[in-house]
Amino acid sequence: MLPLTDHLPARRTPVINYLIIAANVAMFVWELSLGPNVQQALYEVAFVPRRFWIPGFLVPNVITIFVSMFLHGGFLHIASNMLYLWIFGDNVEDRLGHGRYLLFYLVCGFGATLTHAFFNAASNVPAIGASGAIAGVLGAYLVLYPMQRVTTLIPIFFYPLIREIPAIFLLGFWFVLQLFAGVGSLGVPEADVTGGVAYFAHIGGFILGMILIVIMGGMRRPPQRRVAAWDGDRWVM
Predict the structure, then answer these.
(1) CATH fold label, 2-236
(2) Who is most buried in 10, 21, 147, 202, counting CB within 10 A?
(3) Per-residue pLDDT tens over the stretch 196-215
(4) At residue 191, does pLDDT exceed 60?
(5) How confident is the model at residue 26 (pLDDT cuts 50, 70, 90)?
């Protein structure tokens, strides 16, 4: 299932969400500019789980975690990630506010990467992509707006069916897929089963997002804006 749009307009312009999307696109353009040298460059600047456990590499590893959150492995990878972030990120930012949303996003990405490193400690495959942080956004959206309807593309064999379904079904289905795939990958060489998909980063990010949105005050509804109106004699709020 592929989300196309939700129907919940944000109360304020999601500036941080736009900037995060722009940063991801800019980094992807940089990757394209490297041409055939991109693989070597990614191995040098991206987070590699096996290097995380080497003593003395704490600071470089922390830096590579944040760099990796803005790198992608291809057009489909970045397009799908940015679509999810575009649809769901604005409403989470609307609840948290700009500063807290940025902190929320980065912490979810950091926690997602550490989850991946824990379950794939021996992996030499660079862990790149915004999907761990975006999974946190999805988890937060599920907590905040479980019954919000999302226009979704549902492929039935070769027939594309478009329906509005509640977020709890769409995002719940997405999480269950990640959970089954992640558990199924345990004990199997990463390249043989995952095709480079960091399922445990998705799982960790999603759960962390559900927890953080509560801790960071996202459950408190923002006050309604009061609009002045003329009652014939005076302006009232």
Answers:
(1) Rhomboid-like fold (1.20.1540)
(2) 202
(3) 678 899 999 999 999 999 99
(4) no
(5) very high
Q: What are the tokens at 21?
A: 């999307």
81/51 Cα distance (integer angstroms): 26
Q: Above 60 in pLDDT, residue 64?
A: yes
Query: What's the 3-state SS for the chain?
Result: CEEEEECCCCCCCCHHHHHHHHHHHHHHHHHHHCHHHHHHHHHHHCECHHHHCCCCCHHHHHHHHHHHCCCCCCHHHHHHHHHHHHHHHHHHHHHHCHHHHHHHHHHHHHHHHHHHHHHCCCCCCCECCCHHHHHHHHHHHHHHCCCCEEEEEEEECCEEEEEEEEHHHHHHHHHHHHHHHHHHHCCCCHHHHCCCCCHHHHHHHHHHHHHHHHHCCCCCCCCCCCCCEECCCCEEC
Query: Per-residue pLDDT for 71 more than 70?
Result: yes
The pLDDT assigned to 197 comes to 79
